[in-house]
Amino acid sequence: MSVAHQPHVHQPPTEGTRRILWVRVGGCLPLNSGGRIRSYHTLAHMMHGCHLRALELHRTQDEPVSGPVAYAHEVERVFFRGLPAWSPRRLPQFAWPLLRNLVASSEPFALERYRSRELSQKVRELTLRGDFDLVVCDGLAAAAAFEGWEAERQIHAVLFQHNVEALIWERLASVQRHLSIRFFFQVLARRMSKREPELCRLFDGVITISEEDASYHRESYGLNNVLGCVPAGATTDARGVPQRVIDPSSSPCLAFLGSMDWLPNQDAVTWFIEEILPKLRHTVPELKLMVIGRNPPASLLRMTAEDPGIHFTGTVDEVAGHLRQCTLLVVPLRAGSGTRIKILEAMAAGVPVVSTTVGVEGLPLRSNEDLLVADDVPGITNAILRLLKDHGLRRALAENGMQRVMRDFSWQHSAECFFQLTDSLPQNRCSPSAERNVP
Q1: 11, 35, 183, 292: which has the fewest C-beta neighbours closer than 10 Å?
Q2: DSSP codes, 220-244
């Protein structure tokens, strides 16, 4: 096992300070995915109310991570020989592990690839040492590290669920054209729908990121340990509504924002470029599309290589500047779960949004007031054209969105919600496994 320890302006916790161990796969930096953004800002604001130690699982082949971070008082990193980040060009590396998993395992491949004996040992060691009041598992990918020793824990453990993972794979399977890919996603969905609730039951509490996800865990999985949800936040841009929204000139630009190595985002962009963009260009021939997000797949780059009006930025240091070059944000998601921080980021930047119902799922936003919502090709096309033509509506949605984020969404509120939910746990812990055995 390889372990690296990195303090961040370390000060011993004072008497009475809550001591939290936070376990996750990977670090929170760089801020190039919704999950990282959510965890980073929640943690950074929680640091004012507790002493926070982060334990992170990293691949040995990843770029070295060093230096202080702004989301924990202490950071410890465990390294393991895991598969690299997925991309189609790495299919040869994934072929045998995928086949072996499909034939010889019942574990969802999306979880099996992160299984680490090193992480399990370290989580158990730190949890049982008695130095913490609470341990948090940040995401389902790290949850297996808590399995097999839950009865030994003397402190509460909480799972922070960023999605309903099974639902993502079900939705992805439903929109696949290729039968082999659809079959594989259906297998993943079935396995995940069995394994996800099993892992959730290891914990004293489950915290989701939307009321919809909390209800799904309670009703579809039958869980009685769901504490509630922690909403996402955003920071309103002080510069106000961008000029490209007020006056898009003769060549308006649409934005898509999201990590392009995430399959639901790839599906959304492919569907938009193939089915919706050509119809938009019948009316607005000079319309452009900017896809803002890391690791766009080679297949999409090849498909759009001859179209100068489509631009993939790849990884960017700062999102707001790119959003403010665009007239509106499109969120044509057909699969996914949780909440889309990209919508709040666009609203905070003063950029109006057109989204599908899946895209806006989990966010308490109002269609025709905070954004426009449509689900099929004609509906999305008409909503975008309506916004491009109606200057008053475009400006009103932009201003309403900024006001809504300022009023109802903040990362400080997210941190406070997390503390409130964990404080609701009973003082004396009864292990989840013991509770399950009560007749």
Answers
A1: 11
A2: TS--S-EEEE--------TT-S-HH
C-alpha 358/C-alpha 348 separation (Å) is: 20
d(CA 329, CA 252) in angstroms, rounded, equals: 11
Nearest partner of 359 among 265, 270, 271, judged by Cα = 265
Phi, psi of 10 (to 5 degrees): -70, 125
Phi, psi of 325 (to 5 degrees): -85, -5
- Say yes or no: do domains 2-233+413-430 and 243-409 share a fold: yes
Length of the chain: 439
Distance CA 215, CA 258 (A): 26
CA distance 79 to 59: 5
Question: CB within 8 A of 297, min separation 6: which ones?
Answer: 87, 88, 260, 261, 266
Q: Give the per-residue pLDDT at 90.
A: 79
3-state secondary structure of 109: helix
Answer positive or negative: Cα dihedral of 98, 104, 107, 112: negative
Using DSSP, state whether 265 is helix, strand or coil.
helix
What is the gyration radius of the CA atoms in the chain, in angstroms?
22
In this structure, which topology does domain 243-409 adopt according to CATH?
Answer: Rossmann fold (3.40.50)
- C-alpha torsion sign, points 148, 152, 158, 160: negative
- What pLDDT is recorded for position 314? 87
Asked if 22 contacts 98 with a C-beta cutoff of 8 angstroms, the reply is: no
Q: Supply the pTM of this predicted model.
A: 0.86
The answer to whether the CB of 371 falls within 8 A of the CB of 354 is yes
User: Residues 221, 208: contact at Cβ < 8 Å?
Assistant: no
- Amino acid residing at 180: S
Q: For residue 373, list its beta bridge partners.
A: 355
Supply the pLDDT for residue 8.
43
Residue 202 identity:
L
Q: Please name which of 86, 108, 175 lies closest in space to residue 358, comparing C-alpha atoms.
A: 175
Q: Which sequence spans correspond to the domains of the chain?
A: 2-233+413-430, 243-409
Assign 261 a pLDDT band (cuts: 50, 70, 90): confident
Nearest to 74 by CA among 32, 132, 16: 132
Indicate whether 439 pLDDT > 70. Answer: no
Q: Can you say how many angstroms the Cα of residue 415 is from the centroid of all Cα atoms in its chain?
A: 17
Task: Report the number of secondary-structure helices (H) and strands (E) in the chain.
Answer: 18, 14
Q: Does domain 2-233+413-430 have CATH number 3.90.1150.10?
A: no
| Mean local confidence (pLDDT), 77-83 | 90
